[in-house]
Structures are given as structure tokens and as C-alpha cells.
Design brief:
The protein is mostly beta strands. The chain has one domain. It contains three helices and 25 strands. The strands form two sheets. The chain has a 22-stranded antiparallel beta barrel. The radius of gyration is 24 Å and the shape is globular.
Length: 561
């Protein structure tokens, strides 16, 4: 049974949920925060109820059964104890959502392993000076599996020897003010990401281990000053500058991006504008090589990661310096619909950015995002946390309690899972698209999402990572959820996912995973409720010897204080 979770679900989990949604134009700071073209989901959020603070602590005790259907027939049981708290704050000047959970799994038979985990997700903001200064922050704690394709998944409650844990947090101020006819927007964010892994992952017998990401510090600052069309000129004019840097501990890698640009907004109609911008950008990715032994082989430390040779100078892995430009359209036919789409030149190639938000009512929303960025794992995860909404319900695996990587919300940008698509230590260029639809019908809530992500890895010539330069990981994913209130005292929720990955790395290849789960909850007395859950997962991989199918079931009690 241990083999079941050593190779299954670990190869594709992060892409088993939605994917990354990042602000498009905000990536270069050119028009982030312009009031005339705010997202439709943000407008809908302003119309929701305000002045509410909910803090809901709880404890749980459950019995879990995990059964292997194929290729074996092992059965394991666990006693699961958990404590957590869910927080929601909605106010005129403040907003936040958070979910934090500690869980202990006690093995009930031989062949199973005890485990414990801390998981959570949070995102919020607080107004320091109304309509001028806000402070925002977010964080994530997740238990994951890492393998040669770079995929991660919610770790099952067995085989903790190959478990990895991700911790990430960011914070920073946002400034919005007006100076005469000019609108000024500025922001600064600092984020830290840490991956705890027992050792580097060996994909196949005889293969070189994969150097897993350790930690990084990412920083991002931008300022943009612009006039609105018609005040004082017929067109809107703007100028912006920004700086982005991520410092990775693995081989002392560094991603640095600095730019300055000007832009113009030409109104075509009250709801449509043509936009364009031109500027200068300097992007550089650099690193040091690994320390070598007398035979010239790289040295691996006790943590399973490559040891950095700090005595050697930094080597350039990628640089792009010169002119950048883009042209596009901004369309806003109503306060509930907005579209931004641009094409241009960046990173020495053609780039595409875009976003679409449609919120026909406060009970439904459609969001689409197209993105293109150069980053390390930590920087991309910080971007994903920034894009999370401030009003959400955390989505958790009903059997393990782990964060699924997505949140349930009628706002856009509701997943961080696409950012978890690779925990390789190399930096990369990430391009893709993510889409989601959410709807609430009275007591029934539903959502579906899909996306595509490509990561082209960047490494310096002559370094130990050189073989990864130019290689890509691709992933496709789709997920959905459906939940409803049954009467006054019962709830029913279901989740389903499917994902496919393909990697150019040696001994990685392709893989796929599909699965579904259902949970039923019944209030017994006041804060006490009973719950039952079932799940089934199927996994196929070019690396694994066998296709694997497993089923799980849970019975338990929960008390909400």
C-alpha cells in the first residue's frame, strides 16, 4: 500500500486543480489600479454586504480507510484528529479570509505511518488612510509531494518520508491618490517562500536526483502616474517604472527585472479605448555553479540539494535588455464587465497578456487570465497569493484536510495551484491561460475551471543546471465543485478533477490523474455535526510501473465553537 502513494497522485497534483490567475497589466505596472477600468469582480464585491466579522474555531475526530483497488488490494486505517479556525472579515475599509488547520493521523495497522500537518491559506487588506493607503498580506501552508515532472499534489496521509511542505507569505502597502489631474498608484510587496523536503527526489532507478527548490525572497515595487482621457487632454497619458527581484538559495540564483515606460489611452467610445506603451527593460537571470569534488562531480549536501560554490563569480544564465512595447484594447461596457488584451515585445520575443471579468450579478462571475513572466518558484507563488480574493471559502481535501490549492469564491483569481506546477530549483519563463466560472443558485454553489501552463527553464551554460536550460514542462487541468445546503441541518459537496502533464526532462515523461470526492455533513446538536466522505483517484504515468487506483472513506464528528 505504501507504493500506492509513493508513485501515485504525486506526479500531477498541482495541476489537478484550477491553475494560476495573475493580474495581466499589473505585471509591468503600466495601468494597475486605473479607476476607469477596474475589474467587474471588484465592482460586484463592493455591492456585497459589509460590516461582518466571523471567527469559527472547530475540532474534529474521524476514522479514515484507504483501499487500493489496483494493482494491489491493501487496506489501511487511520484515526484522524484535527483542530482549526476559519475567519472572514468584510467591512467598508477592511477585508480578509483565512483558514488554518492542524491535523494528526494515527496509524491503525502495520504498514501505515503516523503523520501530522499544518495547512492554511489567507488573504486580506486593511485601510491605513481611506482612499489613499492600504496594507495587504497573504500566506499559504501546504503539504505536498514532489517528483521529477515538477508536479505536486496534496499529500495523502501515508509515506511521510517523501513528504514536502510549502510555506509562503507576503505583505506590502498600496498607495492610490490624485495630484491635480494625475492619478498616482504605487505598491511594494515582499514575499518569502520555503519548501521543506527530506531530500532531492529520485525519479527512476539510476537517474540523477532532482534538485528541489529550497527558499527564496522576492520583492516587487512599481509606480504609475497617469491622466484620464478628457482631463486635461483628449487622451490619457501615463508614465511608470518598476523593479522586481527574486533571490533563490539554490545555487544563489537571482532574477532581476527593471523597467521604465510611457503609455497612452485613446478613447474610441465611452466603453472602449485603444492603449499602447513603449519603454525600456533590463532582465537578468544569474547564478553560481555547484561545488565540485576532485573528480569534477557536483557535491550534494545533507539536505539532498546541490552545494553552492560561493568562491566562484556569478554567471549570467539569461539577459534581455532594450526596447519593450505593447498595444491593446480596454473594454468596459458596464460596471460588471471588463476586458483587457495586449500584444507586444518583451523578453526578446512576442508576449501576450489579457484578462476578462464578467459578473452579471453578485451571485455569478467569469474570469479569464493570460500571463507571461520570468520567475522562480517563490516569486510565482507570491504572485498567485496576491491574485487571491479577500472573500473566499477554503477548498480542502475531505479525506486528508489538505488545502487543494483553490478557494471557492465569486471573485476572480481563486487558485494558487498553477504556481505549484514545478518545484525544481531552476528559474523559468511561465506562460499560460486560466479560466474559471462560479455561480450561486440560492443554497446551491458551483464552479468550474480549466487552464494550460508552460514552463521553459533557464540555466547558465557550463553550470550543473545547464542540462535543464530550454527544457519545458507542460500541464493541462480542469476541476469543478458543487455544494448545497439540504434543509437547515445538512450539507452536501462534491469535487472532481482531471490533469495531464508532459515533461522534456529525462525520466519524467507524461502523466495523468483523475479523481472525485463527495462529503455529507449533518448537524446533530447545536455545534456538533457528523460527516461522511468518499473519494476515488486514478493515476497513470510513464514513470510508474503500474496504473494505480485507490478509494478512501471517512466517518467522523466535528464540533464548531
Amino acid at each position: 500500500m505504501k507504493q500506492l502513494f509513493t508513485t501515485s497522485l504525486a506526479l500531477t497534483g498541482a495541476v489537478a486543480a484550477l491553475g494560476l490567475s495573475v493580474p495581466t497589466l499589473a505585471q509591468d505596472g503600466s495601468r494597475e489600479g486605473d479607476e476607469d477600468f477596474a475589474s467587474a469582480s471588484e465592482e460586484a464585491e463592493r455591492e456585497r454586504g459589509r460590516g461582518r466579522v466571523v471567527v469559527q474555531p472547530y475540532i474534529e475526530a474521524s476514522q479514515v480507510l484507504v483501499a487500493e483497488i489496483s494493482p494491489g488490494d491493501d487496506v489501511l486505517t487511520y484515526t484522524q484528529l484535527a483542530a482549526g479556525v476559519d475567519v472572514s472579515v468584510t467591512g467598508r475599509n477592511n477585508g480578509a479570509s483565512a483558514s488554518l488547520r492542524y491535523e494528526k493521523n494515527i496509524a491503525g495497522n502495520d504498514g501505515a505511518l503516523d503523520s501530522d500537518s499544518l495547512s492554511g491559506v489567507a488573504r486580506g487588506y486593511a485601510t491605513i488612510a481611506p482612499q489613499v493607503l492600504t496594507l495587504e498580506a497573504g500566506g499559504l501552508a501546504a503539504r505536498t509531494r514532489v517528483d521529477g515532472t515538477g508536479g505536486t499534489s496534496p499529500n495523502p496521509i501515508v509515506d511521510t518520508d517523501r513528504e514536502s511542505r510549502i510555506y509562503s507569505a507576503y505583505a506590502g502597502p498600496n498607495v492610490h491618490t490624485e495630484v491635480g489631474a494625475a492619478v498616482v498608484n504605487a505598491n511594494y510587496r515582499i514575499g518569502y517562500t520555503k519548501v521543506e523536503a527530506p531530500d532531492a527526489v529520485i525519479v527512476a532507478p539510476g537517474a540523477d536526483p532532482v534538485d528541489v527548490f529550497d527558499d527564496s525572497l522576492s520583492q516587487n515595487a512599481a509606480v504609475h502616474v497617469a491622466t484620464r482621457p478628457g482631463d486635461p487632454l483628449p487622451v490619457g497619458l501615463g508614465v511608470g517604472a518598476g523593479w522586481r527581484q527574486e533571490d533563490l538559495s539554490n545555487l544563489d540564483q537571482r532574477v532581476r527585472d527593471m523597467y521604465v515606460r510611457g503609455d497612452v489611452t485613446v478613447p474610441v467610445s465611452p466603453s472602449l479605448a485603444v492603449v499602447g506603451g513603449i519603454g525600456y527593460e533590463d532582465v537578468e537571470v544569474s547564478s553560481r555553479d555547484a561545488l565540485r569534488d576532485d573528480d569534477g562531480d557536483p557535491i550534494i549536501g545533507d539536505d539532498g540539494r546541490l552545494v553552492t560554490d560561493t568562491s566562484q563569480p556569478r554567471q549570467i544564465a539569461y539577459e534581455a535588455e532594450g526596447l519593450i512595447w505593447d498595444v491593446g484594447v480596454l473594454w468596459r461596457p458596464s460596471s460588471r464587465t471588463s476586458l483587457a488584451a495586449t500584444v507586444g515585445r518583451r523578453y526578446d520575443s512576442t508576449t501576450y497578456y489579457g484578462s476578462f471579468a464578467y459578473a452579471p450579478s453578485v451571485r455569478s462571475s467569469v474570469n479569464i487570465s493570460v500571463y507571461d513572466t520570468v520567475s522562480g518558484f517563490g516569486g510565482l507563488l507570491t504572485d498567485a497569493l496576491v491574485a487571491l480574493p479577500t472573500e473566499f471559502t477554503a477548498s480542502r481535501n475531505p479525506l486528508t484536510g489538505d488545502i487543494n490549492g483553490c478557494v471557492q469564491s465569486l471573485q476572480g483569481g481563486n487558485c494558487v495551484t498553477g504556481a505549484l506546477g514545478s518545484i525544481r530549483s531552476s528559474t523559468f519563463r511561465s506562460r499560460g491561460i486560466a479560466a474559471s466560472y462560479a455561480r450561486q443558485f440560492g443554497r446551491l454553489s458551483a464552479g468550474i475551471g480549466a487552464g494550460y501552463n508552460e514552463r521553459e527553464f533557464i540555466a547558465g551554460e557550463g553550470t550543473v543546471l545547464a542540462s535543464a536550460d530550454g527544457l519545458t514542462d507542460e500541464s493541462y487541468y480542469i476541476t469543478g465543485y458543487l455544494g448545497t445546503q439540504i434543509g437547515r441541518d445538512a450539507t452536501l459537496s462534491t469535487n472532481a478533477y482531471a490533469s495531464w502533464t508532459d515533461s522534456e526532462f529525462v525520466n519524467a515523461g507524461g502523466s495523468s490523474a483523475v479523481g472525485a470526492s463527495a462529503t455529507y455533513g449533518q448537524r446533530v446538536y447545536r455545534g456538533l455535526s457528523a460527516r461522511a466522505a468518499v473519494a476515488i483517484d486514478h493515476f497513470e504515468s510513464d514513470v510508474a510501473e503500474d496504473d494505480i487506483t485507490a478509494a478512501s472513506a471517512l466517518l467522523g464528528l466535528r464540533y464548531d465553537f
